[in-house]
Design brief:
Layout: H1 2-13, H2 18-33, E1 37-44, E2 49-56, E3 67-69, H3 73-81, E4 85-87, E5 109-117, E6 120-129, H4 137-169, E7 173-176, E8 178-181, E9 184-191, H5 209-233, H6 240-252, H7 258-267, H8 272-288, H9 293-313, E10 327-331, H10 336-340, E11 347-352, H11 360-368, E12 372-374, E13 388-392, E14 397-400, H12 404-424, E15 442-446, H13 449-457, E16 463-467, H14 469-473, H15 481-495, E17 500-503, H16 530-535, H17 537-550, E18 557-561, H18 567-586, E19 596-600, H19 603-607, H20 609-615, E20 618-621, H21 623-631, H22 649-664, E21 668-671, H23 679-688, E22 692-696, H24 697-707, H25 712-722, H26 728-741, H27 750-756
Parallel strand pairs: 9-10, 10-11, 11-12, 15-16, 15-22, 16-17, 17-18, 18-19, 19-20, 20-21, 21-22
Antiparallel strand pairs: 1-2, 1-6, 2-3, 4-5, 5-6, 7-14, 8-12, 9-13, 13-14
Helix pairs in contact: 1-2, 1-4, 2-4, 5-6, 5-7, 5-9, 7-8, 8-9, 15-17, 17-18, 23-24, 23-25
The chain binds phosphoenolpyruvate and magnesium ion.
Residues 562, 601, 622, 624-625 line the site of magnesium ion.
């Protein structure tokens, strides 16, 4: 049964369009269940009706013609009740509705199951038989399993297929992905196909080893040249730190890495193209098998490099692409190199069918400020070339064939965002002070050099979180102590005399290093953050020494420990920090001992805040992790993203408890998760009593703008009102309503969210 299921799903998944997919379903399911009829009725939410879309067994002429209202007939009942109906004699059921055109009067027994995808009713799958009998338990289970597995495939085929109907109907089609980089863009699609197809390379025996190796070397040289040129082209847009990524690619191609492996395979008898394919496939497989999101995404980088080398091996240099003025670059799998090939002023937006916000291309897009949607899995990208598109990087949506009304609407959002951002410049140097004179400092989160530049530009008062893992991630080995010292010095100097909170290496979970893979079944509950570095004191000590040395004469360093769940970890880490301090002093450097703080991002830490606070100088809530652990919702899993709620009452109570307890011990407490950068949430956080908010620089001026308009007294009233509710959604909606009444609605992105519900 499992094999049959798997085969059918595989066959349906590779169908060229929706109609073919449905036809395969009805044929294969009828055969597998040995019934006389199998039909699929799809539900159209616009007309609230079902249409018979495919059938094996009913009159062919009725397919596409027969429709049923949403509650009509047995099909309507299955959809309405969202559960199977299994009848030995369908005609005796009170909801039976006879449709002459189908010729179904011959079939007595009926089994219908709903097709449900992400809580939405897509339609009903039906089998029928002449013999009067009730379908058995196993048959029912088979059809339910089939339907559950097919739902995703049908949803995908529906989304993909609908693009064809769109041009005639001029109906807007919306595709959902995830937000890769914020902002909205309207432009013309340029679809980039990979330079060459590795999968199509046949195995061939090498005739002349030397000439195949020469061919390979020349291809590698050409790709290296291409990478260097792209990196150079990005030089005035991206700081050196981010461009280091291209050095990693270059090193991957170098003679001792992939180049060497390919050469060995040529020597053992394969031609160059085949050897390249084998090596690239092996590396892709290795990366794809990893649990870690970041490492899995690296498979895309290797695949892109492989294709580039292959295109030179096949003598086909990349065709010259013409980029319109507002290019929306689309590919099945965008790569940083593709991004770098677009002229600077032409790139308006990015859409990638594969990948996530962890992909390198998304990281670069954020650094460049290009609105981006990642993981738009249903996007029929190959049909979009030249089409007008809207990219909503705030909500992770792509609209194709937008009607004039939607275009005007998004043009307005774009203009407003632009105007608003320009208008915000005026408050850059003003303090974040409420109308009733409450002062709350706004700090920034940094990691990329671009963040630093942007932060200074926006008047940040300090760094609440410097993610030190970022410079670790863009390399292919641990940075040395002196390399780290240089990077940290740069960061500390850029902000001096403002304080810079450097978090010690926080890897594991969804962040890891390709040169230090961590393979675990449950990485978020595994070896992460402080747990890794306490087990590797040599890494921790080198990092802390580098931080301390970098701070000489500036004295604006603060050290922060991630993922703390016990006092023991704090004591151990403090012991190591004191040791590093003593070592640096022994080297003759006049280093002052910096304040040391902890992140509260694990529920255990919430309950021991007073104990923690007694031992450290400051606390900071990492709300991204704290929310995922409190609510038991993986922060990167799109299936449960609707359950990830910053405004869940449990979250608000936890935040309040941490602030109260830390203050009882006379220690400051900040918050540095994404929540702090949400202008609506910031109002509540201020009311809860946080001493400062630390956020991405992109949001800083918006948050300041809102807080300068809402008094602390009013914020406290709003908080008290909201805490009377017990539902996250109600709290969120009531907060937005309250803020709209206060006249700050325009910064909440409510406008574009409204349209996204359409
Ligand atoms: C957090 O968890 O809120 C946080 C700031 O850390 P990161 O997002 O880097 O895990
Ligand atoms: Mg965290």
């Amino acid at each position: 049964m499992l094999t049959t299921l798997r085969n059918i799903v595989q066959e349906v998944s590779s169908a060229s369009d929706l109609q073919v997919a449905l036809q395969i379903i009805v044929q294969r399911v009828r055969d597998a269940m040995k019934t006389e009829v199998c039909s699929v009725y799809l539900y159209d939410p616009e007309n609230t009706s079902y249409t018979l879309m495919a059938s094996e067994g009913l009159n062919a002429s009725s397919v596409g013609q027969v429709t049923l209202a949403h509650c009509e007939g047995l099909v309507g009942q299955v959809g309405l009740r969202e559960e199977p109906i299994n009848l030995e004699n369908a005609a005796t059921h009170p909801n039976f509705h006879y449709i002459r055109e189908t010729g179904e009067e011959r079939f007595t027994s009926f089994l219908g199951v709903p097709i449900i995808h992400q809580r939405k009713n897509l339609g009903v799958l039906v089998v029928q038989q002449v013999e009067q009998r009730r379908f058995g338990e196993h048959e029912e289970a088979f059809l339910i399993t089939m339907s559950a597995q097919l739902a995703g495939v049908i949803a995908h085929a529906q989304a993909t297929g609908s693009i064809n109907n769109v041009s005639s109907a001029r109906r807007v089609v919306r595709f959902r992905g995830s937000a890769g980089a914020t902002g909205v863009a309207i432009g013309d699609a340029v679809v980039i196909t990979p330079p060459a197809d590795l999968g199509a390379v046949p195995e061939q025996v090498c005739q002349d080893t030397d000439s195949e190796i020469a061919l390979l070397d020349s291809a590698l040289t050409s790709v290296r040249k291409e990478l260097k040129e792209t990196s150079k082209r990005l030089a005035d847009r991206l700081p050196a730190e981010e461009r280091a990524l291209f050095d990693v690619y270059l090193r991957m191609l170098d003679d001792h890495a992939l180049g060497q492996e390919i050469r060995e395979r040529i020597r053992s008898g394969s031609w160059a193209q085949g050897a390249l394919r084998q090596v690239i496939d092996k590396h892709i497989r290795n990366f794809e098998m990893m649990d870690d999101h970041y490492l899995r995404e690296r498979a895309a980088d290797v695949r892109d490099l492989g294709r580039r080398v292959l295109s030179y091996l096949q003598q086909g240099e990349q065709a010259q692409v013409r980029y319109p003025q507002k290019t929306i670059l689309i590919s099945e799998e965008l790569s940083p190199v593709m991004l770098g090939e677009v002229p600077q002023d032409a790139l308006a937006g990015l859409v990638s069918v594969r990948g996530s916000s962890n992909s390198h291309v998304a990281i670069l897009a954020r650094a460049l400020g290009v609105p981006t949607v990642m993981g738009a899995v249903d996007l029929p990208f190959h049909k979009l070339a030249g089409k007008k598109l809207i990219v909503d990087g705030n909500l992770g949506l792509v609209y194709s064939n937008p009607a004039q009304e939607l275009l005007d609407y998004y043009a307005e959002v774009f203009e407003e965002e632009n105007q608003f951002s320009k208008g915000l410049e005026a408050i850059r140097d003003l303090p974040c002070e409420t109308p009733d004179n409450y002062r709350i400092p706004l700090w920034v989160n940094t990691g990329l050099m671009t963040d630093t530049i942007r932060s200074l530009d926006r008047g940040a008062e300090g760094v609440g979180l410097y993610r030190t893992e970022v410079p670790f991630m863009v390399r292919d080995r641990f940075p040395s102590e002196s390399e780290q010292e240089k990077i940290y010095r740069h960061q500390l100097e850029a902000f001096a005399p403002r304080p810079v909170t450097m978090r010690t290496l926080d890897i594991g979970g969804d962040k890891s290093l390709n040169y230090f893979p961590i393979k675990e079944d449950n990485p978020f509950l595994g070896w992460r953050g402080i747990r890794v570095t306490l087990d590797h004191p040599e890494i921790f000590l080198a990092q802390v020494r580098a931080m301390l040395k970098a701070s000489v004469g500036l004295d604006n360093l603060r050290i922060m420990l991630p993922m703390i769940s016990s006092i023991f970890e704090v004591e151990e880490a403090q012991h190591l920090i004191r040791r590093a301090h003593a070592e640096v002093l022994a080297e003759g450097l006049p280093v002052v001992m910096p304040p040391v703080g902890v992140m509260v991002e694990v529920p255990a830490a919430v309950y021991i805040v007073r104990n923690l606070a007694r031992r450290v100088d400051f606390l900071s809530i990492g709300s991204n992790d704290l929310i995922q652990y409190l609510l038991a919702v993986d922060r990167n899993n799109p299936r449960v993203s609707d359950l990830y709620h910053s405004f869940h009452p449990a979250v608000l109570y936890a935040l309040q408890k941490v602030v109260n307890d830390a203050h009882q011990e006379g220690k400051t407490v900040s918050i540095c998760g994404e929540m702090a950068g949400d202008p609506a949430a910031a109002v509540l956080l201020m009311a809860i009593g946080f001493d400062m908010l630390s956020m991405s620089a992109v949001n800083l001026l918006k948050v300041k703008w809102v807080l300068r308009r809402i008094g602390m007294a009013r914020a406290k009233e709003i908080l008290a009102e909201l805490l009377k509710h017990d539902s996250a959604q109600v709290i969120h909606n009531s907060l937005e309503l309250a803020l709209c009444k206060e006249g700050v609605g325009k910064v909440l992105g409510i406008k574009s969210r409204r349209f996204s519900q359409v």
